[in-house]
Each structure stands twice: as C-alpha cells, then as structure tokens.
Amino acid sequence: TEEARRPILRGQLLAMRxxxxxxxxxxYSKNYDPNDARGVPIMLKSxxxxxxxxxxxxxxxxxxEQDLTEAKTLLASVPFSDTVMNKINIAAYQARIxxxxxxxxxxxxxxxxxxxxxxxxxVSGASYVGxxxxxxxxxxxxRIRYEADGAIGALWTTTNDLIYIAPSDKLVSLFTAxxxxxxxxxxxxxxxxxxxxxxxxxKGARVVDIKIIRTAEMYLIRAEANAKKPSPDLAAGxxxxxxxxxxxxxxxxDESFGSASALISAVLEERFKEFCFEGQRLFDxxxxxxxxxxxxxxxxxxxxxxxxxxxRFVMPxxxxxxxxxPNMVQNDNY
Length: 334
Known about the structure:
With 334 residues, the protein is mostly helical.
C-alpha cells in the first residue's frame, strides 16, 4: 500500500539529505573541526526565502549522522540495490564520514559491515575492466545511471576525441604494465594520453554511469583507519591494501609495512590510482593536510605546488549565495 511505502521514502530522503550536507561541507569548509563555526547551513525543510547562518562543523556532522542512522533503520528490510539508498551503501557512507572526521574505530566498524555483507566483493580481470564500460556493476555500491547523457565522460574527452583534460604524467607514471588499471583508466592516441575511464559504454560514447562509492574504498578506508587508530594494526591495514592490489596487479606479492606512516603513504597513493577521475584526490590531500604537488612535466614552476592548508583547498561561497543571504559568511581570502 501507499502507506507502507512512507517509511521507505522517508529513509531514502533522509539519506540523500545527509549526503548533500556532508558533500557540501567537504567543499566549502576547512578540515573537520567540530568547533569550527564555519560549517554549512543545516536545512531541514524546503524554504527558498530562508536566510540560514552557517552551523558549526560539529553540528552539521551530528545532523548527518542522525539522518543516516534513522535512514538505515527505516531501510533495514530494503534489499540491496546500487541505484537506491539502502542499509549497505548507507554503511559505506558512514565509513567515509567516520574517516573524514577521524573516528577510526567507527570507520573500521562500518567498512567491515559493508565488506562482510559480500554484496559486491572485489573482482579482478575482465570483471573489473567491465565496471568502466557499464558491462557490469561489480564493486559498485551506489551509482548514478545515465541512458544518453555524457555528463561525466565528456568532461575530459569529446565524442570527436578532442582531449579537454589529459591524465597527468604523475598519475600515468604510477601505473605499471602489470596493473590492469593502466589500460582501463588511461588511453594513448598519437603519443597523447586521454582518460579512458568513463570513455564509452554500450549506451554510447562518454555515456557511462557515475560510480559514487565502491567496495575498493571500503578496503582502503579500513586500511587507513587501522594505520591511524590509537593502537595501529599494521598487519590488518596491509592485508586490506594487499587485497586491493592483488585484484588489480598481475603477479602481485604482498607488501608489509614497518610503520604507520609508511602504510598511510601507500594507502593514499593507492587511492590516487584507484579513484582517479572520481573526485576524491583533493579531499584526500586536504584531510591529511598534504600539498598538491605536480610534476615538472605537468605544470610550470608557478603552478606545481599548492601548499598544505592553503585557503584554496576550500571553495569560495558563490557570490549569488552571498547576495541572497546576508547571514552567509564568505571563506577566508575570497
């Protein structure tokens, strides 16, 4: 009945509201500090005339976590699907958010919940390559479906094969010949590199679904959290990192790590490779207080380095928002 669908609809909407608040704060606020007053406004109802002030980052995350917890309860009986919110992909977001705020035990708990559900295990070979042409939905926990829109693929390369944005030499150099991601992610034409990820599917050129959150991220979240938690578990962290690499690199031999810092560096580099062109690199560097460092072949000296903590890691509040809302405070240096 329609009434029976009410809690499911509420759960879906609560989850989406949570993700919206979280993702906006990632872009428009500094690194997570619950006491930082410049989070983003918390909007719990539609009101085009509202003029909300910025809530603290702690208040925003509290609301996000509350919405996700309620949504997860309301959707407890909903079967897994990678196109709608459900208890599994909500847990995946809870893992991402826990890592973002530095709650490493929670990040381990939530990522383990997703991994142990076994709804989308890690894959290798053609089963992995097929993710990027929509031949399958392996490892995909949540995606946005496209039937004819090249909104993502055409960001980098047109359907006439003009390259708008090419992969950096720094990124290309990280892939070895035995890494299946090299050809899956990077194409070469006439000596020039182009983004092969999201390049084409059976639906058309540059028409490929967005993979919003994937199983590989759960392994790398858990690896990083195990390295960063108060009593690091380097063996557990290495096992998760090695699990991802084993499914990507032919003949891979497991690596061990003698320090938490070495494991963290390896995980961040693996995230750089695994999630390239998926919108995660800037946030990875930002939350780890690391600089953007381009290679000499990718940028002129003046543009090679963006120092850690630079104000440009935080996006400016749009002028239209400032004009419409007198209670909105602009970010530093804009």
